[in-house]
């Protein structure tokens, strides 16, 4: 009597037969999806050039939506400038280092660029925060016009 492949008694299978039967579906799957490990692992989506275009389009859309929102009333920043030092004033309004640029415009407002300037003299100046000044980066009181347009209510 051979132990492998033979049934004992009333239709009962041996332990080896049960293991072989349990292994059969896995062998079929492995044959359909060959890989070094025996299984086909899912690969992460890498995107490529098409995904970069989607990201740029999404960033531009976000910038347009933010610009379409009602203007936010912001009061100017009083900052001390050093003579001869170069500064970059944020023109998009997304910088966390207001009123200076921290590079946020690259992703949030790609159509905007910082205004670069060199301080002419030491001293304190008012730099625009509402971003609607006619003479950037200095404040010209444009935020007051926004205040009047909004009936004195802050937005």
TrEMBL record:
Q: Which Pfam families match?
A: zf-CDGSH
- Keywords of the record: 2Fe-2S, Iron, Iron-sulfur, Metal-binding
Q: Which InterPro entries match?
A: CISD, FeS-contain_CDGSH-typ, MitoNEET_CISD
- SMART domains attached here? ZnF_CDGSH
The Iron-binding zinc finger CDGSH type domain extends over 74-111, 112-149
Q: Where is the composition biased (Basic residues)?
A: 1-14
What GO cellular component entries does it have? mitochondrion
**What does the record give as cofactor?**
[2Fe-2S] cluster
Q: A single GO molecular function, which one?
A: 2 iron, 2 sulfur cluster binding
| Positions of region (Disordered) | 1-44
By what name is this protein known?
CDGSH iron sulfur domain 3
* Species whose genome carries this gene: Coturnix japonica (Japanese quail)
Q: Which gene encodes it?
A: CISD3
């Amino acid at each position: 009597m051979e132990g492998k492949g033979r049934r004992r008694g009333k239709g009962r299978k041996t332990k080896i037969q049960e293991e072989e039967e349990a292994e059969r579906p896995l062998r079929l799957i492995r044959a359909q999806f060959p890989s070094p490990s025996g299984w086909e692992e899912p690969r992460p989506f890498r995107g490529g050039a098409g995904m970069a275009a989607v990201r740029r389009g999404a960033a531009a859309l976000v910038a347009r939506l933010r610009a379409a929102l009602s203007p936010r009333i912001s009061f100017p920043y009083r900052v001390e400038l050093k003579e001869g030092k170069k500064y970059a004033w944020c023109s998009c309004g997304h910088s966390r280092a207001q009123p200076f640029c921290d590079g946020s415009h690259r992703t949030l407002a790609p159509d905007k660029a910082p205004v670069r300037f060199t301080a002419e003299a030491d001293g304190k100046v008012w730099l625009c925060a509402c971003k609607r000044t006619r003479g950037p980066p200095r404040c010209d009181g444009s935020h007051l016009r926004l205040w009047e347009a909004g009936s004195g209510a802050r937005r």
